[in-house]
């Protein structure tokens, strides 16, 4: 079985920051309520000219630079997004063109907040089977475009941003086990209608407010804690590990209290969890790659560390992956052997 190393990581947040104080002027809310109930202090919002593809291109350029690779080296581009630039072409095609990745195929993965994790699971399988050697996986969102800015129950929670990871075939590293779940019967817990939905007798589609994010917050809260914890347990078992073997928890960033709930349910100390929700809010598909990119730059991810990635998204998809984090792609035993040889 071929392993997967993380060759490079990148992220991009739009320049404009919207604070809780600013939201107080839009809806009946308060900085205190948002901090207490969600842990969010601020979020970034895309400029009018920015889109999911432009955000992803910025994140991908950083990841390619980190990997010391050129766009032409990439063979496949997967973009997890729930806010694509259009119905088609795929946002991945626009990223491919923007980067000048002339040798890459690409497609989008739509699974709401699970978009990146679903795309990552596919990418690791392409590499494991030998189909591709270098794959770029992005998570990118402009959720501000589908937010109802009059609904205080949702508009305070989300933000815009993108993260990217360049994966490369290697001897060591990659997915040790993953699980993907879906339950469309829970659609009403979190959904946004689109332009292709059913028409009424007069030929009208869904009204505009239903084409924005609609959420049953308390229901999603419970589902998020239960489902992400259960998925991590399941993926850990598949990997032949125990929860005690997890070095870093990389949870989807929806709400600080959800992250604390997952950490408590798994009996993993909060010190092991990556947290960015306070500064970026919920950026859907982008939360996990942004957290990974930042943590790598902060030196928080050790070579060979076992990361538990987990997420949950719109009505309803959820899952987890145990990822053996390797930048070198060389197995620890081989590394220490080589080190001993070098010292002798
Ligand atoms: N400011 C002030 N008051 C508010 C706000 C707000 N922004 N939003 C809701 N309230 C009010 C409600 O109207 C309610 O008032 P009432 O008691 O008079 O009816 C009160 O606060 C309590 O509302 P709840 O919804 O019960 O509050 P809760 O503690 O559940 O927090 C929240 C709401 C933050 C949405 C929480 O349920 C949550 O985070 N859910 C997870 C949903 C989520 O993040 N989904 C994103 C995608 S899925 C995922 O990523 C996990």
Record keyword descriptors for this entry:
344 residues, alpha/beta, Peroxisomal Thiolase, Chain A, domain 1, 2 domains, 5-stranded mixed sheet, 11 helices, 13 strands, 24% strand, globular, binds acetyl coenzyme *A
Which secondary structure elements does this structure contain, and how are they paired or packed?
Blueprint: E1 3-12, E2 16-19, H1 20-24, H2 31-38, E3 42-45, H3 52-67, E4 76-80, H4 91-99, E5 105-109, H5 115-128, E6 134-142, H6 152-155, E7 160-170, E8 174-182, E9 190-191, E10 214-215, H7 217-238, E11 248-251, H8 256-266, H9 277-280, H10 287-297, E12 306-313, E13 317-324, H11 332-343
Parallel strand pairs: 4-5, 4-6, 11-12
Antiparallel strand pairs: 1-7, 2-3, 6-7, 8-13, 9-10, 12-13
The structure holds acetyl coenzyme *A.
Estimated share of beta-strand residues: 15-25%
**What name does the CATH topology of the largest domain carry?**
Peroxisomal Thiolase, Chain A, domain 1
Distance between the termini: 32 Å
Q: Can you identify the CATH superfamily of the largest domain?
A: Thiolase/Chalcone synthase
Overall CATH class of the largest domain = Alpha Beta
Ligand inventory? acetyl coenzyme *A
The description of the largest β-sheet is: 5 strands, mixed
**Which outline best applies?**
globular
How many domains, as an integer?
A: 2
Helix/strand-derived category reads alpha/beta
Instruction: Write down the secondary-structure element order.
Output: EEHHEHEHEHEHEEEEHEHHHEEH
Please give the CATH architecture of the largest domain: 3-Layer(aba) Sandwich
Average pLDDT for all residues? 96
Give the neighbour order of strands across the main sheet.
Answer: 1-7-6-4-5
Assembly form of the protein: single chain
Poorly predicted regions: none
- Rg from Cα: 20 Å
Task: Report helical residue fraction.
Answer: 25-40%
Q: Count the E strands.
A: 13
Count of individual helical segments:
11
């Amino acid at each position: 079985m071929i392993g997967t190393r993380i060759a490079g990581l990148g992220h991009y947040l739009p320049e404009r920051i919207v604070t809780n104080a600013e939201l107080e002027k839009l809806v009946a809310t308060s900085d205190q309520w948002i901090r207490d109930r969600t842990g969010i202090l601020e979020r970034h919002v895309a400029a009018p000219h920015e889109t999911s593809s432009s955000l992803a291109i910025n994140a991908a350029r950083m990841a390619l630079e980190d990997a010391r690779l050129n766009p032409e080296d990439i063979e496949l581009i997967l973009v997890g997004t729930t806010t694509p630039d259009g119905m088609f072409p795929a946002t991945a095609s626009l990223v491919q063109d923007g980067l000048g990745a002339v040798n890459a195929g690409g497609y989008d993965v739509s699974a709401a907040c699970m978009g990146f994790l679903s795309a990552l699971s596919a990418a690791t399988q392409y590499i494991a089977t030998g189909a591709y050697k270098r794959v770029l996986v992005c998570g990118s969102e402009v959720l501000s475009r589908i937010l109802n800015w009059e609904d205080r129950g949702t508009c305070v929670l989300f933000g815009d941003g993108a993260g990217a990871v360049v994966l490369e075939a290697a001897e060591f590293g990659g997915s040790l086990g993953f699980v993907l779940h879906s339950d469309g019967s829970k659609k009403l817990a979190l959904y946004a209608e689109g332009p292709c939905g059913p028409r009424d007798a007069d030929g009208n589609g869904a009204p505009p407010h239903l084409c924005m994010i609609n959420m049953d917050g308390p229901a999603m809260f419970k589902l998020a804690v239960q489902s992400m914890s259960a998925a991590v347990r399941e993926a850990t078992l598949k990997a032949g590990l125990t929860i005690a073997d997890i070095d870093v928890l990389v949870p989807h960033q929806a709400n600080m209290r959800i992250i604390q709930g997952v950490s408590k349910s798994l009996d993993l100390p909060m010190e092991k969890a990556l947290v960015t929700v306070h500064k970026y809010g919920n950026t859907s598909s982008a939360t996990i790659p942004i957290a990974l990119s930042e943590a790598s730059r902060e030196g928080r991810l050790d070579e060979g560390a076992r990361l538990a990635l987990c997420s949950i998204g719109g009505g309803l998809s959820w899952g987890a992956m145990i990822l053996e984090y390797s930048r070198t792609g060389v197995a620890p035993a081989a590394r220490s052997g080589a080190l001993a040889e070098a010292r002798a």
